[in-house]
């Protein structure tokens, strides 16, 4: 059994982690922490756990926790985790950080885009970017995994085969992305207030979103990235455009995607003419990808869909845990989409 702690257990990602971990037979969920609800039973915070999961939230005593567990999931806002962990802690415990603190290798880039000081730059080199389908071998050996961002997960998985095979013109990538409101977390703010976002669609952080450097670092290309807030709870859809270098047919590109993903259980390629929809991945750890070659413009258009809180956060974190501890990569992640809801 792997002994596990979830720090930040009452946030949206934290609660999805709990849901995935309590049904995993290889996991002993020893600690769940909360600053706001310390001493309270989890089921008094989230009623869906009544009589099912009643563990009490403790404070965030990381020194003690790291002595007693094998793995800590950090589900805290950005800018906190890098001040909480250090090298000597990593000698005792593995960490999967779901915030962005270790995703970017260049500290100056991090501090510029996140507008905060990094608390442990000495750990940036060893942190492994936890996109399972890209870095599985390094994840197996990692002590510290930086779980990817939600928009980057869909964007990078959609574009990686094209970039790796040098099929698209450098820096021609445009990503139009849409996210459900849980992407903004549980905290209250005006933009995610029901009356402010329901029945409306908006672009935000145009050319300035903090996921831009993350996507660019992983793809090695500049990108134009525009996120939109969609009035639904879960789901991300990314529609990416890029100029093809040569005249390629659908079947040529399909072979390339198959080369990268045919053995990847959680990446599913749609059939020609069928494009991913968030409802087919909601509540699951799948990333669905479909594409079209626009012969008139010689551009490729790739659509990716994930559940922002599962493959975009908690599910990918569990997948990373499974890889780090040599478990079946699918353990606890077998659910298909909740449809209809
Ligand atoms: N939501 C999503 O779709 C995704 C989120 N992420 C990342 O995962 C992390 C958690 O996100 P999410 O669960 O959505 O966020 P939430 O705001 O829902 O939850 C974060 C939790 O962290 C705890 N917390 C501890 N210290 C602080 C603090 N100083 N300020 C605010 N909260 C604090 C709070 O719980 P308490 O007070 O009980 O301790 C809070 O509920 C973030 O880094 C986020 O960017 C990544 C991918 C997708
Ligand atoms: C809808 C919404 O607000 N989404 C968030 C991104 C989700 C998130 O938490 O970002 P990470 O994946 O980097 O952790 C945003 O745009 O800031």
TrEMBL record:
InterPro entries: AGPR, AGPR_AS, AGPR_dimerisation_dom, AGPR_type-1, NAD(P)-bd_dom_sf, Semialdehyde_DH_NAD-bd. Its main location: cytoplasm. Residues 3-142 form the Semialdehyde dehydrogenase NAD-binding domain. It catalyses: N-acetyl-L-glutamate 5-semialdehyde + phosphate + NADP(+) = N-acetyl-L-glutamyl 5-phosphate + NADPH + H(+). One of its GO terms (biological process) is L-arginine biosynthetic process. It comes from the Bacteria. Its EC number is 1.2.1.38. GO terms for molecular function: N-acetyl-gamma-glutamyl-phosphate reductase activity; NAD binding; NADP+ binding. NCBIfam families: argC. Catalyzes the NADPH-dependent reduction of N-acetyl-5-glutamyl phosphate to yield N-acetyl-L-glutamate 5-semialdehyde. HAMAP family: ArgC_type1 (MF_00150). This is N-acetyl-gamma-glutamyl-phosphate reductase. It comes from Tissierella creatinophila DSM 6911.
């Amino acid at each position: 059994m792997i002994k596990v702690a979830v720090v930040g257990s009452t946030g949206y990602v934290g609660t999805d982690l709990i849901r995935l971990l309590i049904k995993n037979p290889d996991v002993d969920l020893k600690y769940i922490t909360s600053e706001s609800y310390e001493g309270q039973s989890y089921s008094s915070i989230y009623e869906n756990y009544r009589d099912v999961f009643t563990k009490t939230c403790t404070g965030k005593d990381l020194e003690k926790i790291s002595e007693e567990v094998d793995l800590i999931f950090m589900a805290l806002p950005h800018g906190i985790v890098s001040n909480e962990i250090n090298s000597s802690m990593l000698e005792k415990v593995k960490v999967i950080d779901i915030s962005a603190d270790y995703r970017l290798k260049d500290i100056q880039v991090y501090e510029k885009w996140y507008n905060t000081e990094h608390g442990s730059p000495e750990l940036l080199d060893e942190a492994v970017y936890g996109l399972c389908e890209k870095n599985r071998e390094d994840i197996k050996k990692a002590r510290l995994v930086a779980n990817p961002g939600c928009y980057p997960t869909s964007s990078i998985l959609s574009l990686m085969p094209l970039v790796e095979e040098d099929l698209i013109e450098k820096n021609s990538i445009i990503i139009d992305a849409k996210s459900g409101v849980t992407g903004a977390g549980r905290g209250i703010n005006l933009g995610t207030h029901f009356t402010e976002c329901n029945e409306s669609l908006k672009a935000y952080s145009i050319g300035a979103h903090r996921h831009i450097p993350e996507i660019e670092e992983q793809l090695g290309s500049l990108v134009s990235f525009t996120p939109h807030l969609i009035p639904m709870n879960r789901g991300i859809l990314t529609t990416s455009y890029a100029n093809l270098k040569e005249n390629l047919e659908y079947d040529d590109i399909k072979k390339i995607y198959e080369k990268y993903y045919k053995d990847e259980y959680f990446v599913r390629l749609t059939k020609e003419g069928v494009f991913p929809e968030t409802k087919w991945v909601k509540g699951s750890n799948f990333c669905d990808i479909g594409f079209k070659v626009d012969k008139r413009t010689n551009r490729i258009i790739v659509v990716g869909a994930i559940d922002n809180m599962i493959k975009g956060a908690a599910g990918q974190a569990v997948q990373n845990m499974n890889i780090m501890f040599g478990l079946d990569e699918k353990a606890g992640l077998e659910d298909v989409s909740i449809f209809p809801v």
